[in-house]
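ARCHIVE CARD
Drawer: 12
Card no.: 0347
Subject: one protein chain, sequence and derived structure
Cross-reference: see card 0346
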Amino acid sequence: MTTIDWDAAAGSFDEEPDHGLHDPAVRDAWAGRLESWLPATRSDVLDLGCGTGSLSLLAAGQGHRVTAVDRSPGMAELARAKLAGTGAEVLVGDACLPPVGERVFDVILARHVVWLLPDPAAALHHWFGLLKPGGRLVLVEGVWGGVGLPAARITALLAPHTERVHHEDLAGDARLWGKEVDDERYALVARAEPPHRHTEVVDVHLILRRGPDVLLARRAGTGYADGLLHMPSGHAEDGEDVREAMIREAAEEIGVALDPDEVRVALVMQHRGPGGGARMGWFFVAEYDADHPPRNAEPEKCSELDWFPLDALPDDMVAYCRAGLDGYRAGEHFMIHWHEDGDPVAHRPDGPRRAVALPPAAERTGRVHHIELWVPDLAGAERRWGWLLTRLGHLPYQSWADGRSWRRGESYVVVEQSPDPSADHHDRRRRGLDHLAFHVADRATLDALTAEAPAYGWRLLHPDRHAYGGGEGHCAARLEDEAGCEVELVVGSVPRP
């Protein structure tokens, strides 16, 4: 900031060619620039630090309603004389906080003012508050004789308020200054539009479970991914939270009326289709109600509605939908699925994996890292445990000569053939491991697993008490494999008595 006695300077201020604009060529040059900076229609213009009112006079002459402000009474008096008869108003006041009350303007004009202000950032913030939506801030500034502000500095100050800043070099136009200049002189025209904020569509997807199966719909007539299977889905409307959106979409697409307490969050996944924009997807789980079965409520958008096994999903699915279901089966809760341009929309089993699981922030100390089982026969164990773990939502993880593993979330189960076995059968009655226990979603899934288990080398223990082997109120089943290893499949979270 500089200290200048502007009242003392008022008498000689117009002697500079670009101040007084007495030369017709200089005046015409400024008039032309001003016409390009100001709206084509009659507008309200606030000229801050107006000096003797030369630019205000040009703006008024172009049909605009002008309010001029200067902190110097001497300058303001000369401006009133110059603007007499134009309808312009001249006020004495500080450009930082102009005395205009609650009025707002289409344009704020300030020439060679910002560099003099004690706090330019605060002044610009206030000026944007005086602009109408879509209004313009026109700043003429420069660096001359070692003083002033470079354009980059003011542009940075404007960044929090707008992304639309037009820079115009003025140094090369000698007519504006009445002489050749070799320093930095410029105009910045900024629009009163807030900086662009990144936004994403929020979509919702329903994992409707019927025991081990999940409901999928084949898209048709939508123009996107037609012919591929997808979950019932849609996107949140304005003013709608994601749970409300899911309930609405379920009713619209499959005629199912869900209560809020029936809808549980399974997964949140940010995803991007090839060549498209990013979307934030919320995957919800709800259980099938035999009294209110789903139906194809939008046949113009869906050619097929059917149940498919969650652990043997078809390949002709939308890729990010398949990735979301695979993540759900694996116990993931947060994922990214980011297509690259040129990727197919459809799931490709042999294509590149785009799904990235994001671990949640949680205390890891004390959680199960992995469980390792020594087995006498890897091939048989792989058949038995591979079937069971896959059906329980684990995914194949590692494979080596003597072992295999299956992973769910951050934990995994290993079966490995012992290089030095002491027995070929596990005796759970000896000290050590008795059995492993896994959660199962519901009774229908439990019954399906126990029905399939014998074909994969498991036998049901205590069939006379199935599925209450743990006592009344404890719905579970115990399976034993050919090597004597036992697992318990438990519905719900009721503790053992």
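Annotation on reverse: The first strand starts at residue 44 and ends at 48. The mean pLDDT is 91.
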